[in-house]
Amino acid sequence: MSIAKSNEVVRVDTASTSTLRDDSSKQWESIAPIESGTTVCSDKAEKKRKSDRGPVIRDSIIGFADGLTVPFALTAGLSSLGSSKLVIIGGLAELFSGAISMGLGAYLAAITEAEHFVSEQKRERKLVLSTPEDEEERIYGTLQRYGIEKSATLPIFQTLKKDPEMWVQFVMDFDLRLEEPAGNRAWISALTMGMAYFIGGIIPMIPYFAVKNVTTALFVSIGITAFVLLVFGYTKTRLTVSSHKAAFWGALQTLMIGAVAAGASYGIVRAIDHSSPGTL
Question: What is the rounded distance in angstroms from the CA atom of residue 239 to the CA atom of residue 242?
């Protein structure tokens, strides 16, 4: 009797343990996809944040670099005429028109990039539905470029076949290497490029507002712009290459480009002024 009860207790305990294990497994199965999905979403958010920041940095560098060199070269050339008023008027005209032009150019480039992405995405959707065999071989070829054998790609492809949208996204990411631009990318690019150009361009003009003598203002502008070009060239190269030696040469290269542009502009305007003194 006691043995039977003991066995019954053992059976009950075993069943209870099995039930607890089953419940625990179900709980882990329900939690695991959530954690995995959260990780994927987090990775996508981090990737999107980095991809959004990259174009802003690129537009800032391009706009600021152009703003430093072009207006500086123009004002240096106009200073050879000996009139501060002429330098200021001509410099401001170029500065505003250049900033607007750079902003519009960046806007149109971003719009074109977005339209190209949408066009390629639509084309890939049609190809996935109409010629899946060709797209399958395309994926095989893409993965083989990374040293992955065809036999190892079969599970990957079987997974992609279950979700045509993921298939299209795979081709866009790894074969075409196109990234979907943000919806407000065009406006951000235009404002970033235009403002960076304006800030870079106003720096060489500051001495002409503060100093009456145009020759003195020219030398002060050269000194300020040379210093800013060195700092800008060093910082830009240091952030992209992470090497002090490369950053040093990048600073010198940026300075030389600005010097050549300013010298050429100054010489051309000076030569035109001497060739036709009555018209200027």
Answer: 6
User: CB 124: neighbour CB atoms within 10 A?
Assistant: 22
Number of alpha carbons in the 13 Å side-chain half-sphere of residue 31: 6
Per-residue pLDDT tens digits for 159-174: 877 888 888 888 888 7
Q: pLDDT tens-digit profile of 204-229?
A: 999 999 888 988 998 999 899 899 98
CA angle 168–174–178, rounded 5-degree value? 75
How far from chain centre, in Å, is Cα 13?
Answer: 62
Tokens representing 98 are: 């250049």
Its pTM stands at 0.69
